[in-house]
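To whoever picks this up:

The parser on our side crashed when reading a file containing two proteins. I've narrowed it down to the boundary between the first structure block and the second sequence. Both blocks are reproduced below exactly, byte for byte. First block:
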Amino acid sequence: MSLMVHDLGKRYGEAPVFQHVSLTIQPGEFVAIVGESGVGKSTLLNCLAGLDHWDSGSVAIDSIDLATLDDDARARLRREKVGFVFQAFHVLPHLDVAQNVALPLMLLHRPDPVRVQAMLDAVGIGELGKRLPQQLSGGQLQRVAIARALVHRPALLLADEPTGNLDPGTAASVMQALIAQTREHGAALVLVTHSMPAALQADRILRLQVDGLRDFSTQES
C-alpha cells in the first residue's frame, strides 16, 4: 500500500483551509499530524479517505488517483483498503458490539465471526460482544471503533483524534491497542491528534499549516 498526496489544496469559498500539502506514506509507516485547532486536520484526513472533496492537487492510494473515481468506486476502495477511526466513535446504536465490528466484513460479503471475536480480544473487550453501545464507556467505545477499522485488514488506517474524548489513562491504553494492532497487521497509520504523548509514538510528526505540512520539532511550542 502506498499513499501519495501532491500539492493538495482545499478552500471554503475564497478562503484557503490548507494548500500545497504533499505527503508520501510508506507501507507500515506511522505518521502523526498535529496543528492548531481550525487548521483543517480533520478535513485533510477526510480528503485522504476520499470522504471530502479538494480543490487542487491529487490523492492516490496504491497509484489509484481518487479524483478519477466516482462516489461508489471511492466507497469500494475504502471498504477494501482503508480503515477509519472517528473521534465520535460512529458506532450504530441498534447493533451490538460484535455486529458493529463485523460491519466492514459484511459490506465486503466476507462474514467471519471468528475474526470479529479475535479483534475484540485483541483490543481488550472480548467479553463485551453482546452489549449495546450505550452500555459501554468512552474508552470501550473507542476500542470498538479500532476493532471495526482493522477487522477487514486494511492497508491504510486513518485515525481522527482517537483519544480526544478520553481521560489520560484511558487514552494511553487506547493508543497502545491502536498501535499494537496496526503494527501487527502491517498497516500504515495516519493519526491526527492534539495529544503530544500520542504523536511522539509515531515514526514521523508533521505540523499542518495553511501553506502545507512541515516537519515538527519537539522543541517547538
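<<boundary where parser fails>>
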Amino acid sequence: MIVYLVGMPGSGKSTVGPELARRLGVPFVELDAEVERAAGRTVREVFEQEGEARFREFEAGALVGVAAHDPSVVSCGGGVVLEPANRVTLRATGEVVFLSVPLEILKGRVHPAAERPLIRAEGDLERLFEEREALYREFAAHVVDGSGSAEEVAAAIERELLRWSA
C-alpha cells in the first residue's frame, strides 16, 4: 500500500512521513525531491524559470513514477491535489491522508521566504489555506490532526489506517 500525505505547507508531511514509513517498515519518498531529480533543478528554480504550470507537469510525472513503487509513504507537495489527473492517480494507487493543521499553527511553522514559490509575502499562506483546505478535506480518505509531534501524528495515522483496514 502507498500512503500519500497531503496538506498545507507546514502541515508536517516531510517530518511525519519518515516516522510513519519507519513504523510501517516501508520506504519514504519526498515527491518534491523526485520533481527536482526529473527537472535537474530545484522546485524554486522550476517555478522561477518555467512557472507553476510547468512545475505541475513535472509533479504529475513524478507522481506517476512513485505510484508504481508500492509500498511506500509519499510526502506530496501542497498543491498536488489541484490537478484532476493527480487526484485520479492518488485515489487509484493508495490511501490519501490529509494532515489537518489549524491556520494559527501553520503561521507559526511557515513564514514567507524567497525559497517558497507560493508563500513569498504576508497573506500568501492565508490565501492558500482558504483555497485548499476544503479540497484537502473533501478529497482525502483519511483526515488526521497534524498539530502534534511527528511521533504523535504518525501513530494517529497508523491507528487510522489499521481501523479502516480491519
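After patching the parser it read the second block fine. The chain has a mean pLDDT of 93. The radius of gyration is 15 Å.
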